[in-house]
Design a protein that fits this description.
The complex is a heterodimer of chains A (about 210) and B (about 190).
Chain A (H helix, E strand, L loop, with lengths): L21 H10 L5 E5 L5 H7 L4 E5 L7 H6 L4 H11 L10 E7 L7 H12 L2 E12 L4 E3 L5 E3 L5 E3 L6 E3 L5 H7 L3 E8 L4 E8 L1
Parallel strand pairs in A: 1-2, 1-3, 3-4
Antiparallel strand pairs in A: 4-10, 5-8, 6-7, 9-10
Helix pairs in contact in A: 4-5
Chain B lengths: L40 E3 L3 E8 L4 E3 L2 E15 L4 E13 L2 E3 L2 E9 L4 E3 L2 E2 L2 E4 L4 E7 L2 H13 L12 E4 L19
Parallel strand pairs in B: 1-3, 2-4, 3-4, 4-5, 5-6, 5-7, 6-8, 7-9, 7-10, 8-11, 9-11
Antiparallel strand pairs in B: 2-12
Classes of the chains: A alpha/beta (about 210), B mainly beta (about 190).
Chain lengths: ~210, ~190
């Protein structure tokens, strides 16, 4: 994302290494045996993820925000009202359905959004979610840089995560702190956080 | 919100992404409803159909379809050249081309690399290959799938027979032997 910093050449990270993400695993365990769930995935659809989610009774909305320049459009300068409309338009059509969201997978997309656009997106999501809904996110924490494009995280059979993003160029990372996130995420409060082996912090936010 | 539940070790198999048959002889076969000799009907790339396509045998679409496609008990493949602007109902649906409309399958839907799907997907098992483009809703809850397919049936989906004839524009050249099977009573007419 040019808006988040200049890309610099850097040796490719070991992105295909499987990453233990305990909170992701916890979510999947809790989905097993649960009732019907409504899930929003801000990333691209993948067969391994759908296979995992398909074990439970669920409907999955795929937003694929990184496609078609969605992140760049959301990061563009615009009035607050337009930003809210833009955020809404990037989510799958809701159609006035009454089944509110229970769970949202953000992956590492929050790192690629400026604070204002990220807040607008979370407000749009909150409007579709039920109280207590959970948001899962991976936030760059210890590294100063990150791949220039968002990851494409795919779960393994062991419920670890593999990033299939082929991007090797890096840009500076916003390194949102918990205090930043409390401010930005609005009515989504930090529920749990864990530092991962790759220097990212895994967060679960809960809608108050 | 979530409670710990019993872990289910019976994980679904990953959908099979082996290419589904560019040739007739390799087409998916429904032993009960597939064409004779296990072949499937093909709508060739020069064929355009506006209206309802109905049938009771496996079908591959390489042409351009607008309307609805209803293959209640059969398998549908939308080939690389296929463009379908329609709600589609079938036993299984495999997409290599482009679709605009909702896809309903009683068994499985697979979306392959470079395919573009605009619309919602309803099926108990869904596979979306890396490189496919999809934005929308995926309904995998079996109860909701049954309900959606039942509702679709009431509204003209599988099992419902409309008197509306298909308004098809068939290119004169190469009227495609493959399309012959569509002239049977069960096909688009």
């Amino acid at each position: 994302m040019s808006s988040m910093g200049r890309a610099t050449a850097r040796p490719p990270l070991q992105k295909l290494e499987a990453l233990k993400a305990p909170l992701f695993r916890l979510l999947l365990e809790q989905l097993d045996g649960a009732g019907r769930r409504h899930i929003l995935d801000l990333g691209a659809a993948s067969t391994p993820m759908l296979s995992l989610l398909g074990r439970s009774r669920c409907r999955v909305e795929i937003a694929d925000l990184a496609s078609d320049g969605g992140i760049g459009r959301l990061n563009a300068e615009m009035p607050v009202e337009e930003l809210a409309s833009m955020a809404e338009s990037l989510l799958p059509a809701h159609g006035g359905r009454d089944d509110a969201l229970d769970l949202v997978f953000c992956w590492d997309l929050p790192n690629y959004l400026k604070p204002g656009p990220l807040s607008a997106l979370m407000r749009a999501i909150a409007a579709r979610a039920r109280t207590g809904a959970l948001v899962h996110a991976l936030i760059v924490y210890s590294e100063r840089t990150m791949p220039e494009r968002p990851g494409r995280f795919v779960p393994t059979e062991e419920q670890m995560l593999v990033n299939r993003n082929g991007s090797s160029a890096e840009i500076s990372a916003p390194r949102y702190s918990p205090d930043d996130l409390r401010r930005i995420m609005g009515s989504f409060a930090i529920d749990r956080a864990m530092l991962l082996a790759n220097g990212m912090q895994e967060f679960l936010f809960r809608l108050q | 919100m979530f409670e710990r539940g019993k872990k289910d070790d019976g994980m679904d198999e990953t959908p099979d992404f082996r290419p589904a048959a560019p040739q007739r002889s390799q087409a998916p076969t429904n032993p009960k409803t597939g064409g004779q000799n296990g072949e499937c009907a093909v709508i060739g790339r020069s064929i355009q159909i506006n209206g309802d396509v109905r049938g009771d045998e496996d079908l591959r679409i390489e042409g351009d379809i607008s309307g609805t496609v209803q293959l209640k008990n059969s398998n549908l493949t939308i080939g690389k050249e296929g463009k379908v602007r329609a709600d589609v109902y079938a036993r299984s649906i495999t997409v290599y081309g482009t679709t605009e409309g909702d896809l309903y399958a009683t068994e499985r839907i697979n979306v392959h690399i470079n395919a573009q799907v605009r619309g919602n997907i309803t099926a108990p098992k869904v596979g979306i290959e890396e490189g496919a483009r999809f934005k929308g809703s995926i309904e995998m809850d079996q109860d909701a799938v049954d309900k959606a397919l039942g509702k679709a049936s009431m509204q003209g989906g599988p099992g419902h027979h409309s008197d509306k004839a298909a308004d098809s524009k068939v290119a004169p050249a190469k009227v495609v032997k493959e399309a012959q099977s569509l002239n049977r009573p069960s096909g688009a007419g």
